[in-house]
Specification:
The chain is of the alpha+beta class. It is built from two helices and ten strands. Strands 1, 2, 3, 4, 5, 6, 7, 8, 9 and 10 form a ten-stranded antiparallel sheet that branches. A hairpin with a 2-residue loop joins strand 1 and strand 2. The N and C termini lie far apart (about 75 Å). About 25% of the residues are buried.
Length: about 150
């Protein structure tokens, strides 16, 4: 009887040891917050279609921010508020802005605002270099460049 307990106990210990050795080592998940994380930050427009922006009212610089909690973007085109939903795949730097809402106030920089909104809605990928964010469409020239505010 004593040898049966001994063999049974040894068998259970061996099974436990084997099971612990067979488990996969945990692989670290890539950080979602890093140098390439563009969410939760305010991005100020500096270039549109390869040209620096020239605003009549420099205080109303177009900008946007991505909120991951509700997957919404919000910003200002220069005189009108803009916002909507977005989809992002940071691991492959893909982004899609969905048509949202906008106020409709006339202003001096309306052309820049229209180009800004068009760039957001056309973008399908992005790149980050330091404090500069570039929104792109496929492999074409950048649609818009932004700096971290």
């Amino acid at each position: 009887m004593k040898s049966l307990r001994y063999y049974l106990g040894s068998f259970i210990l061996i099974l436990f040891f084997a099971a612990s050795c067979m488990s996969k080592p945990s692989t670290p998940t890539p950080p979602t917050q890093g140098n390439n994380d563009i969410t939760g930050k305010v991005w100020k427009l500096t270039e549109i279609n390869g040209k620096p922006i020239a605003l009549k009212d420099p205080k109303s610089n177009p900008h946007f921010k991505l909120n991951m909690a509700d997957m919404r973007y919000e910003g200002n085109g220069s005189c009108n508020g803009v916002g909507g939903t977005f989809e992002i795949k940071p691991e492959v730097m893909r982004i899609k802005f969905n048509q949202g809402m906008s106020t409709m106030i006339a202003c001096e920089d309306l052309e820049t605002e229209q180009l800004f909104v068009k760039a957001l809605l056309s973008a399908d990928n992005y790149s980050v270099n330091g404090n500069t964010l570039t929104l792109n469409k496929a492999r074409m020239a950048p649609l818009a460049k932004f700096v971290l505010q």
